[in-house]
């Protein structure tokens, strides 16, 4: 995911780009054709705020920030394909955002309707939700914010609701949690619709109106005690005079912008209208207007069933209604449920069995009844099955300056007319003043607003709204595949070949909107043939997940958290300077001498728990910083940033560096291509060589899998550390005078160190292959260090300075092949042999595979194992008598390979 150019890289960025960069580098070494692009989500409100507060043009502010962040990305050694760089605020890019808008408009998927905005009556401007404080006041003017209706642009994402839901099941490499969040957001609900007729007084023109309700519980229809409608419902036009002022007052009272997080309880007033119950025509059902029915879900009206719905229950209580129960938890309860006195207070929300007051549906289970009731209603024509989706159309227009202008022209005669595609881009004018007052800055530039209608040529006005920045970011990955295309947003062939994105990495905060919008636009592009083969071909061969899904693998990286100190008494956040960290395990609040409360929380300025990536790189280096980020936690989990433990990574690198020094100048290395295709004779290896060979292959296997499918970089680094330790425990057998000298020196050092063992010797080729492989596998994670090691390995011990520099300039470790691995090498050399005595497992003995006499010599094998078993400390308990004499053995059975030995005594 590309970043917003805020002006500085934070640790979250370091984490996401360390992952993607390591991945890109490793996959290139594996031979993949990798596109690892970078761009900038460069439109948005903060630039405009900077313009108002600091009078710097949003464009200048944005470009400056991009330059700074680009420099920081280089510092973390991220190797992006800068020739594909894009900026959503550049006319070369937003031209195509506008083009896609026109395509959606053409397809009937972009339309206008009225919607509510936050309006600041002093500054006369529209405010984003985050610009309204918790008291419902404007961040700038302090005015009480009002709700106003404006004509706004929408994308009809609801048209794709079912596809967007169904195709989640094709995304086998997305976190289940994200898919579930999307499912909930789409919110499919199966239920029924019922029509309640409202007879009107004879004075009214129409004799009756109907209120349609959507319900997920048709089985509760006999429990309906009232109807509840939203304040927008058209039935309110028929409110009798006796009730009009009360209804109007109620509607007014809900217009205040409420931003406090406490949801108000259910409230409402009677409308004076009554409806006929479709199944019980003699019952008059009162109609209320309430605050808890939303106008744009279902039908904007609800059948109130207080006995079985909690909100309806709570509302009925405010009106003093007697509660009617029609569904019992089970058949045995159905009699009791009718005796309302015996019912505990509250709604019975569980499905169960219908009581005997449900007419022909009595005694059915909820599920049976729901089906039968809907069937009967459809026969009569007053009800039907119905599916509702919670997802709303995407409101994309913003009354802002710093965004892509909506490419529409409003003509008095023709209405809204699209800007002809060949006239794109509609360029955002640069010469603007930013006062924060008087509505959108674009509205104030008359020369820009006034234009002629493309259809009739008459005087017309440009649309002064700009697009939500989520539009910019919902298709940029297509543009990466073809960033310089001047005639199309992207070539269909390139998109068909390159999509879907193989691995998409970013924060879980984008789990819903960004990913859903991207899926919507990709599906639109696919369905309308902008790429792929169109809907007539279900799945493109081998191109899972198909159907226009944009992202195959999704990695949602967890939050980076900082160590946070709070005053144990007041709970106030403490600055690092207010805490004595002499003993990091026992922090002390300097002013009080008390132990502060310590926790891990998302890094933020207000909590004083952030770390600046530049400081980390300055003091520990980019390689150790990257390794630490990747080692501390698996990508999808929270990362507790602990600067203390970064030294672990530095120590690890120092160890690798020492090995590299030891390997430097081994003769084979200096000759030609090195050991790219090293295939040793396993038969001829000694046991130390075999074990080293096994470790190298095991590590290669682990890292290959990690970079290809599991992305468990923390485990990968653990394997590299283990391999490093293993290589440190062996040394190359001498093969040249120079090395011999080197080794002797080393052994002398070892002898001085009391605990050091005499090191095992392995062949120089194998040793060098192992070191080379280690460096290659480490390089994608720690690229600068990797290159440095490689250069050192490749520099002949005795070469002149010129040869050395000519080698290093030509030869990057990333130009070399990723180490392959050999499954057969992974077999353990140690055999654990289980010992059974009279059919019971008693203990194990271990031996080296190579020590076991060959299968052909059964006697020798038996003898070898017998000696091993009787030498074992547990043997005295099971195989010897009190005097330490061996008990007589009737039979000794050796299973092939010495895996099991069975004694019959
Ligand atoms: C009667 C009923 C009885 C209901 C009962 C529930 C339980 P989901 O599942 O989320 O789709 N409802 C319908 N439209 C609404 C609106 N515009 N605003 C607020 N609430 C609305 O929820 C469907 C249920 O939510 C519907 O089923 C309706 O209440 C309510 F024992 O109808 B029910
Ligand atoms: Zn016109």
How much β-strand is present in the residues?
15-25%
Q: Bound small molecules, which ones?
A: ligand ANZ, zinc ion
Q: Return the average pLDDT rounded to an integer.
A: 89
* Arrangement of strands in the largest sheet: 4-3-5-15
User: What would the principal axes of the Cα set say about the shape?
Assistant: globular
CATH domain fold name of the largest domain: Rossmann fold
DSSP summary: helix tally: 27
Return the CATH class of the largest domain. Answer: Alpha Beta
Which residues form runs of ≥5 with pLDDT under 50? 535-541, 669-673
The first-to-last residue Cα distance is 69 Å
The share of residues in helices is 25-40%
Q: Tell me how many strands there are.
A: 34
Overall number of structural domains:
5
Instruction: Please tell me how large the radius of gyration is.
Output: 37 Å
**What's the architecture of the largest domain, going by CATH?**
3-Layer(aba) Sandwich
> What's the CATH superfamily of the largest domain, by name?
HUPs
> Which structural class best describes the helix and strand composition?
alpha+beta
Largest sheet: 4 strands, antiparallel
